[in-house]
């Protein structure tokens, strides 16, 4: 059975990203450095717990500063975001941070999915 790290990297590739680096700084947290269609770097921080807080958003903002990535995504794995986390993400708008419960696909992956559906193909998660 693949590890969670391998599963996350596979999901990122399936969404159209190039996986540059994967780290697991905590037992329930992963940080993936991804390259999108345009070649820009993005950080994906995955947190596995029921409720993500403003501190998680601030952690990602600090990582964005250090990595000089163009944007960040905070993925709640098996969880949700507190109102404070949502508010903090809006307040830290100098660095785009997207809160998500599923990894958003790149434009290229979205185009492939649309083309497949137009040909009658079925996307399998």
Overview of this protein structure:
This protein is an alpha/beta fold and 125 residues long. The chain has a single domain, classed as 3-Layer(aba) Sandwich (Trna Endonuclease, Chain: A, domain 1). Helices cover 37% and strands 31% of the residues. The protein has helices at residues 4-14, 54-67, 83-91, 107-118, and strands at residues 18-26, 29-35, 41-48, 51-52, 71-77, 80-81, 97-100. Strands 1-2-3-5-7 form a 5-stranded mixed beta sheet, sandwiched between helices. A hairpin with a 2-residue loop joins β1 and β2 (29-35). α2 packs parallel to α3 (83-91). The longest helix has 14 residues, at 54-67. The chain is globular.
Poorly predicted sequence stretches spanning 5 or more consecutive residues: 114-125
Can you tell me the CATH topology?
Trna Endonuclease, Chain: A, domain 1
Compute the number of structural domains.
1
CATH class: Alpha Beta
How far is the N terminus from the C terminus?
A: 17 Å
- How would you characterize the largest beta sheet? 5 strands, mixed
What is the approximate shape? globular
> Percent helix among the residues?
25-40%
Q: Counting H and I runs of at least 4 residues, what is the number of helices?
A: 4
Strand order of the largest sheet: 1-2-3-5-7
Helix vs. strand class:
alpha/beta
Rg, nearest Å: 15 Å
Q: Give the number of DSSP strands.
A: 7
Strand content: 25-35%
Order of helices and strands: HEEEEHEEHEH
Mean pLDDT: 86
CATH architecture: 3-Layer(aba) Sandwich
């Amino acid at each position: 059975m693949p590890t969670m790290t391998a599963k996350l990297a596979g999901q990122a590739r399936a969404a159209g990203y190039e996986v540059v680096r994967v780290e697991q700084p905590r037992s329930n947290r992963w940080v993936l450095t991804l390259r999108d269609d345009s070649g820009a770097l993005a950080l994906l921080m995955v947190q596995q717990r029921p409720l993500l807080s403003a501190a998680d958003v601030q952690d990602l903002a600090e990582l964005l500063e250090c990595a000089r990535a163009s944007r960040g995504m905070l993925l709640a794995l098996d969880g949700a975001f507190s109102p404070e986390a949502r508010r903090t993400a809006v307040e830290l708008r100098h660095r785009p941070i997207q809160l998500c419960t599923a990894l958003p696909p790149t434009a290229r992956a979205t185009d492939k999915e649309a083309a497949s559906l137009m040909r009658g193909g079925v996307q399998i998660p």
